[in-house]
């Protein structure tokens, strides 16, 4: 019984348990979704003359979530930069909700479109990218 309680707790408190592919959503829709559903992540105001993006991070600086927008303020890709200690948790989550498409690669099929999800290991971080299939 303790194991079940622990699993339920982890599912509902884990930042990855709230993963959702928001590619194709507008700036305001993403901001509203994050405010309502991802209270574990804080909005970080950024100014950049080359890119339009929304940036969110957690209090412990183990995750940074970036939504890259096109000129019409529609999300064209998502990048999650996280601590390497979260990699196993992310892989397990993605294996459970997306179609496995190779080592550290998944496909999300939504509204008749495929989205590629890829995880890469960097020296100090793990990077997950979500973008439409070309």
Pairing-aware structural class of the strands and helices? Answer: alpha+beta
Number of helices: 3
Global geometry = globular
Q: Please indicate the count of domains.
A: 1
Number of strands: 8
The separation of the N and C termini measures 46 Å
Task: Please characterize this protein's 3D structure.
There is one protein chain. The protein has one domain (2-132). Strand 3 (63-69) and strand 4 (75-82) form a beta hairpin. It has helices at residues 2-13, 27-37, 87-97, and strands at 41-44, 52-58, 63-69, 75-82, 99-100, 105-110, 113-121, 126-132. The longest helix has 12 residues, at 2-13. An eight-stranded antiparallel beta sheet has the order 1-2-3-4-8-7-6-5, covered by helices on one side. With 134 residues, it is α+β, with helices and mostly antiparallel strands.
List the helices and strands and how they pair.
Layout: H1 2-13, H2 27-37, E1 41-44, E2 52-58, E3 63-69, E4 75-82, H3 87-97, E5 99-100, E6 105-110, E7 113-121, E8 126-132
Antiparallel strand pairs: 1-2, 2-3, 3-4, 4-8, 5-6, 6-7, 7-8
Short précis:
The chain has 134 residues and is of the alpha+beta class.
Essential attributes:
alpha+beta, 25% helix, 8-stranded antiparallel β-sheet, 134 residues, disordered N terminus
